[in-house]
């Protein structure tokens, strides 16, 4: 269904049968966006998230058809840990996606865990700048986002001062409430400048937070509800369990 948020922005909510169905529809969506972006602009710029998003994508993308050579792959956030740490999002994708598709090393842009987290955030911003033309805010074709049970997205946590960042494209955090404590993350100015932001959430454990984010009026708003691309699409893929507490009648059919 499509509904309208404050400011007349539209948001699409896709309710799927289960998490497998979410993964499948999400992957179809990503491939369509990739092919459309390549057709229009000759390139596809995407930002990946960790956690459950990595599983959905690694399960479904390898078997799908796209011109991988046109992809430029970034990370919406990253746990600032060595590549051999199981928490490292880049390494999860390297093992389960990049090793299975024709993505070359120079098309994927990971965090550098060898730097201090402050320097790493700064360097990551410069890396983004080197791929996107011009000095303005980068406009990603697609940012794939997860939402934690506390309403966080990327490494932007409820009540954290990073939510108010207006200048930096990439910020560092040293006191993440969810371990590991050191991370780098895209900031809201970049998230809300994307052509398309997509969330995927599954399971009854996320239902209360999905309801808060999509229908609640918590003030100040939770990080996931602050993702509202100013000139772009916003889509949520949910399974029935995660959508179970939503009130809108259209969603219960
Ligand atoms: O720590 C993180 O959590 C969020 C949400 O993960 P999920 O497993 O609850 O979907 C994720 O989007 C983010 O990239 C990650 O660093």
UniProtKB/TrEMBL annotation:
UniProt keyword terms in alphabetical order: Hydrolase
Pfam families in the cross-refs: Glucosamine_iso (PF01182)
Keyword rRNA-binding appears in the UniProt entry: no
Hydrolase is among the record's keywords: yes
Pathway membership, UniProt: Carbohydrate degradation; pentose phosphate pathway; D-ribulose 5-phosphate from D-glucose 6-phosphate (oxidative stage): step 2/3
Gene3D superfamilies attached to this UniProt entry: 3.40.50.1360
Top-rank EC class of the record's enzyme: hydrolase
Domain Glucosamine/galactosamine-6-phosphate isomerase: 20-236
Chemical reaction(s) catalysed: 6-phospho-D-glucono-1,5-lactone + H2O = 6-phospho-D-gluconate + H(+)
UniProt GO molecular function: 6-phosphogluconolactonase activity
Enzyme Commission no: 3.1.1.31
GO biological process: carbohydrate metabolic process; pentose-phosphate shunt
Top-level lineage group: Eukaryota
UniProt record similarity statement: Belongs to the glucosamine/galactosamine-6-phosphate isomerase family. 6-phosphogluconolactonase subfamily.
NCBIfam families: pgl (TIGR01198)
Entry function: Hydrolysis of 6-phosphogluconolactone to 6-phosphogluconate.
Name of the protein: 6-phosphogluconolactonase
Lineage summary: Eukaryota, Metazoa, Spiralia, Lophotrochozoa, Annelida
